[in-house]
Design goal:
Elements: H1 4-19, E1 43-44, E2 51-52, E3 60-64, H2 65-70, E4 86-88, E5 99-101, E6 104-105, E7 118-122, E8 125-126, E9 140-147, H3 151-154, E10 161-167, E11 175-183, E12 187-199, E13 203-214, E14 218-220, E15 225-227, E16 230-244, E17 247-258, E18 266-270, E19 279-280, E20 288-302, E21 307-324, E22 334-356, E23 359-380, E24 394-417, E25 420-440, E26 449-472, E27 475-486, E28 489-490, E29 507-508, E30 511-524, E31 529-550, E32 558-582, E33 585-603, E34 611-612, E35 624-635, E36 640-651, E37 654-655, E38 665-666, E39 669-680, E40 684-691, E41 699-707, E42 713-720, E43 725-733
Parallel strand pairs: 7-10, 14-19
Antiparallel strand pairs: 1-2, 3-9, 4-5, 5-6, 7-8, 9-10, 11-12, 11-43, 12-13, 13-16, 14-15, 16-17, 17-20, 18-42, 20-21, 21-22, 22-23, 23-24, 24-25, 25-26, 26-27, 27-30, 28-29, 30-31, 31-32, 32-33, 33-34, 33-35, 35-36, 36-39, 37-38, 39-40, 40-43, 41-42
Amino acid sequence: MRKFPFFLGAILISTPSFALEVDASSSELEANDNTEANDNTIVVTARKRDERIVDVPLSISVLGANDIAEKASLRLLDLANSVPNLVNISNGNDSLSVIVVRGVASQSRVNAGFDSGVGVYVDGVVQGKLYSFNQELFDTERVEFLRGPQGTLFGRNSITGAISITTRKPEFEFSGDAAVQLGSYDERRLSSFLTGPIAEDKLAVSIGGFRTTRRGYIINVFDGQDIGNIDSVGGRIKALWRPNSDVSVLLSADYTNEDQLAPAPQPISGYGAVTGTYKTNTNLPLIANRELFGVSGQIDWSTSTDLTLTSITAYRTASSLRNNDPDFGPLAVVDSQKKQDQWQFSQELRLGGNLSPTFSFVGGLYYFKQEVDGYASSTFGNISNVPGFLRGLKGFTSGVVGSESFAGFVNADWEALPRLTLTLGTRLTYEQQSLDFLQQGFPFVAPSLPRETDKGSDTDFSPLVTVRYKFAPNISIYGTASRGYKSGGWNLDNVTSFSITSFKQLRFNREQLTNYEVGLKGDVLNGDLGFALSAFEQNYGDIQTAKLVPVLGGGGALIAVVSNAASARIRGFEGEVRVRPFKPFTVVGTLGYANARFKDYRDTTAGSLPLIFDGNRIPNSPELTASLTGTLRVPVSDRLTLGGRAQYSYVDGFFQDRDNSTALRIPSRDSVDMSIEAEVDERFRLAFNVSNVFNNQVPVSIGPGGFGFPGVGANQNIQLSLPRMWNVRASMKF
């Protein structure tokens, strides 16, 4: 099936030349591919204002509530295979979200000193740590995927892109929905949403919630327990107050609690090896629990001069608890635990609108404060395989990392000539970071570092320049240059080098990325053909690069040490095409290509000849992604509609290490998802869904493990993609 993405690429590349020959007086791009043309317009807030997606001069994909329901998606990252140049390699672990955008992976570290390079936002509020990212989509209106650095409007830590989730607002008419989903591995999911007025035209409320359980798909042969499960519950409540036609106040509170035994790799050779598939052999369950809570308030005031003043105030907390078995085997050699408690406060104040028919803008001020209380421990077992001087000993790191940032931003559109619009934007950010940490080490293994404080500060200027030309109301071409940055921090994993005597030695600086992009977007043939194509080059500097360092002098156990050690160039393209050859049938194709390679990377820390990685691919960066989706909905009668959906998706292979070693290369993978459904009176819906129809079982992680102890030694571990799963979903609107 490897040839399929290139065939799809030929279709995507040839489409614009056809599109430009047709009548340009078409309708706007639809919000739902299954509705009639002109019924809905996709309105997005990617630039902090309401705009048609076809008018937004940047690479953006949008999936709405119907798309989410049709894909039977539970979580945010279930949508990744529908977005070009976006890959989820989290391996089913919701507290370790690994998101790759245009060949650049977010940091997948539960480490208080790290930040992610992908920004995830819910109703305009940033989710500060990676274990907050992969949230349930039980009350989602739409999800916007913005690719490329979004530093001007979204700020720090959106260097590879931003994902913006918009949840449903309360309405002044009573309505709601409920759904029940049953599936493989005893999946059980209940979700509901209810909204209505409290005071007519003045006050409305909404409440939604979910409960999801599923037993694990991996068997731990050590104790027969199923792992890789889901056990999650949560909800959101909102209140919308409109005292008059110019002012609205939206209050929101949400909560999620999840208990999970995370998917564990399978030792296939060496210590503790087992045969078969979807098996592991560990004496310690991989606990991955998280708890999320947040409250926010948004005030919008529309003035008589066509300006809107918006204030978003939010407070959030997030907790993560993880256990791990570093030797991945059945003996109590060593166990580890990581716990983080994070809180954040953010305040955004912005003003936007039109100053004239040819000039519009949005600008404002932003404040963010965060503290992360982190604790990580490792305990050696009291067994004969462990050297006597280590038996029963416990080492740990503990402390607090804080950050505080202030920013001002502006983004303005000026129609310099008819059909020609110039956009200028900039964001100025000042950031402070602080560290208060200590380490209790092991004799001959890891040093003890006394409690120590450290501070750092940084100032960033993130500009944006865009030129857009409209050939017709719904066809435009654009060129843009933009910049973003990712904060520095401290490498606070267990320190095993006795040459480290201070936490100040563990600090790394920020990284930055500059993006140059051209694109073509359109919606023609009365909504029957829509397309969005772009090509880009990104210069990636001062990359926070991790190298794997052996623990205890070898044996297979490794830790990651990060430093600013490289620069890279990323070149690629991406495209989305939606075609409706006849009214009940829609085809959507996506294609993404990102060639992400180190440009200047020499590691001299070994103390001998430098290790040179110039030209190597960046770790965890697939070059090619593709998908092809067909949706058919046929009205059988005035009341009954039957439908079906099939999606093929492909992710290219990639390397997990900077050496691009064959042993650590993940092979390409593809899958097919299918569903059939019946809908009665546009209210009742019954769907049968199958993911990974052909049960393709390919590795999603490969790596060594173990310790160089007698009877333990090294092993080779592998983890497979999710197996085939099915579910039946019944839903009702009222």
